[in-house]
Design brief:
Layout lengths: L10 E7 L4 H9 L13 E7 L2 H13 L5 E5 L2 E6 L2 H11 L7 E11 L3 H10 L10 E10 L2 H8 L8 E5 L3 E5 L2 H12 L3
Antiparallel strand pairs: 1-2, 2-4, 3-4, 5-6, 6-8, 7-8
């Protein structure tokens, strides 16, 4: 008999990162007010959204019944988790079916702006949360919508960009990168596979 996976219809989305890249963990940590734990490079990470509080509580009960000892943060009907243990990851994925919620990017737009002078660079550095900007640098401003989570997109981008190229990352759909025209095209080409 073939086993079939039943997706719990009360799960509205699951974002799963099998191994948090340094890029993603760093920018998550910069937004530490959003969670009660410190994201760790190399960890399995999830953001699971449920349609109602009963479903959320059912999931939490399941987690603790299987012996989950990782990090957990609950905000309304969203549960954020991380663990370094493969056995826990396997059990969580069996419950949440992250493959049913692939990364999808829409409304991707990019525009480059050169940093005009030192005053402009200083203002950029005050407003942003990543790498420092300097006069004369080409910054690519990107806007996007991502489901199920922008954090998963940043983790994917870690394969093609250096953490030192990320001037700003906002999981609500905005990112600033240091990039030449060729680098910008390579990044956009990499993201187009998720459009």
């Amino acid at each position: 008999m073939t086993a079939t996976k039943n997706i719990d219809k009360t799960i509205t989305s699951t974002s799963y990162i099998p191994k948090l890249a340094a890029h993603t963990a760093t920018f998550m940590a910069a937004r530490s007010k959003e969670r009660t734990f410190l994201p760790a490079t190399g960890s399995h990470w999830w953001l699971v959204s449920f349609s109602n509080p009963i479903s959320t509580e059912k999931f939490l009960a399941h987690l603790f019944s299987i012996g989950f000892y990782g990090d957990i943060d609950v905000r309304g009907n969203e549960v954020e988790l991380q663990t370094k243990h493969q056995a826990e990851a396997t059990m969580i994925n069996a419950y949440c079916s992250p493959e049913a919620f692939p990364i999808t990017i829409t409304n991707l737009a990019a525009e480059s702006i050169y940093v005009a002078n030192d005053s402009h660079a200083l203002l950029c550095n005050q407003r942003n949360n990543g790498a420092l900007s300097y006069a004369g640098e080409r910054l690519v401003h990107m806007q996007f919508s991502v489901t199920p989570s922008s954090w998963a997109m940043l983790n994917v981008l870690s394969q093609v960009i250096s953490i030192h190229a990320i001037v700003h990352f906002d999981p609500n759909g905005y990112m600033v990168l240091k990039a030449s025209k060729d680098e910008e095209q390579r990044i956009i080409h990499h993201l187009e596979s998720y459009l």
